[in-house]
């Protein structure tokens, strides 16, 4: 093969990602923005698009979507508190919020509080508690799941 330069130019071959590769990279980047501790995968993969929007939780879903749409890193100072009976979908809404915020480039940490507190209690004796707590301080959005469901001890 002979390459012929023409008037100061030479041929240049470049590769650009296909739609599949772009989608894969987008999903990888989004997933990297979501960190979790003790949260099941099916909760973390919840989305507002696939969530059942029944009359019992439609207001909570609207509030969660509004929070996600209005969140500005470093500017938003108010959080969102969801409460309700066991099994109504609060955790799934939290997971959907994590997905939506990550799509918008926001880093999120979602923690299942009862298990996290057990780990913190264990790390008091072995050390490392400060490192675990530092992660809570540095993330843009912290989602605490099942806060108050932990076993109370003396």
Write the layout of secondary structure elements.
Layout: H1 19-32, E1 34-37, H2 41-44, H3 58-70, H4 90-103, E2 108-112, H5 113-126, H6 129-138, E3 141-145
Parallel strand pairs: 1-2, 2-3
Structure explained in plain terms:
The chain is 45% helix and 9% strand. It is mainly alpha-helical and 154 residues long. 20% of the residues are buried.
User: Whole-Å distance between the termini?
Assistant: 81 Å
DSSP helical segment count:
6
Task: Name the CATH class.
Answer: Alpha Beta
**Could you give me the name of the CATH homologous superfamily?**
P-loop containing nucleotide triphosphate hydrolases
Q: Largest sheet, order of strands side by side?
A: 1-2-3
Mean pLDDT: 85
Largest sheet data: 3 strands, parallel
Proper CATH architecture:
3-Layer(aba) Sandwich
Structural classification: mainly alpha
N to C succession of SSEs: HEHHHEHHE
Estimated helix fraction: 40-55%
Poorly predicted regions are: none
Percentage of β-strand residues: 5-15%
Radius of gyration over C-alpha positions, nearest whole angstrom: 22 Å
> What is the CATH T-level topology?
Rossmann fold
Structural domain tally: 1
Tertiary shape: extended
Strand segment count: 3
